[in-house]
Amino acid sequence: MFERTPSRRRRRTLLLPALALTTAATVALTAHLATAGGTASANTPDSPTVSDSADAPDAPAALALPPVGAGFDYQIGGAYTPDDAVEIVIRDHEADPAPGLYNICYVNAFQVQPGAEDEWDDDLLLRDADGDVVYDGDWGEAVLDIRTDDRRERIAQRVGTWMESCADRGYQAVEPDNYDTFFRFDDLLTEDDAVSMITLISDRAHAAGLAVAQKNAVELADRAEEAGLDFAVAEECGQWNECEGYASVFDDRVLVVEYSEQGMATACEGWGDRLSVIRRDLAVSPPGRDGYLRETC
User: Fold this and answer.
1) What b-and-e string marks burial along 209-229, b requiring 16 or more CB atoms within 10 Å of the CB?
2) Cα–Cα distances in Å, from 59 out to 72, 107, 175, 229, 264?
3) What are the domain boundaries of the chain?
4) Which of 150, 77, 266 is nearest to 90 (CA)?
5) Burial status of residue 168 (CB atoms within 10 A of its CB: 0-12, 13-18, 19 or more)
6) Which of 4, 79, 195, 281 could cross-link with 95 by S-S, CB 3.0 to 4.6 Å?
7) Closest CA to 116 of 96, 94, 97
8) Tens place of pLDDT for every residue, the chain, 297 residues?
9) Residue among 101, 111, 78 at smallest CA distance from 215
10) Is 61 helix (H, G, I), strand (E, B) or coil?
11) How is 162-193 classified by DSSP, letter by letter?
């Protein structure tokens, strides 16, 4: 078993300075995110909408986007009743959405949940030169092989069933995690592999009526329009001075999750009046469990 422990922060983003995004890319994505006058979900009457990508088959006319700067909670470690100030909730795709709120379902789209390797076709697991399955050492997750069109299509089909279930149960958006896996395994995967994979996922999500988050990977924000991404979920952008990289591209439609006191202080001071910012414990625990932490600006 091949493992690599990245010399990076908690989850999913390579430690690099925030990039200066080109004006052209920012303008292009702003146009992509423009309101299209469609009808939002009944659970989110005030949510803005966005026209869907022309490439997405059978896509709805408009998608509901998360409200800018709204209170939110990150509940991927276990669902619980949100505080009254919360308008946006992110939960694992197996959990039900929170009634009356803007709900985002979490899916592990580029890696396999711990112990679930046998649930995937063997050839969809990334292998090294010795034929051993490649693992994300920090999380014990096998990495998916996104290097060919056929494999990407099959992965997107499976992830698509999770997303369609989310849509059927009332979710408005999806957070596909591990978009940045290729940074950790750049001898095997490429940026283009990742963008091609997320584009297929976005097309399926849009066809199901779901908006799509860019999860971390600020280095790829200038390709968000190409990839069909509608807003961002950014872990530790305060800690690593990356919030501007997301905010400028997604027009402040950014959900920030910090895990340290320093990162939270930076995010609140610089972005608390513009972006949705919370601090959570590393395990993203529900109330009542040891270590539970949730703070807002």
Assistant:
1) bbbbbbbbbbbbbbbbbbbbb
2) 27, 20, 18, 14, 37
3) 2-34+69-296
4) 77
5) exposed
6) 79
7) 94
8) 433 333 333 343 332 333 333 334 444 444 444 433 333 333 443 555 554 333 434 444 589 999 999 999 999 999 999 999 999 999 999 999 999 999 999 999 999 999 999 999 999 999 999 999 999 998 999 999 999 999 999 999 999 999 999 999 999 999 999 999 999 999 999 999 999 999 999 999 999 999 999 999 999 999 999 999 999 999 999 999 999 999 999 999 999 999 999 999 999 999 999 999 999 999 999 999 999 999 999
9) 111
10) coil
11) HHHHHHHTT--EEEEE-TTHHHHTTTT--HHH
In words, the CATH class of domain 2-34+69-296 is alpha beta
**Structure tokens that stand for 137 in this block:** 């050492």
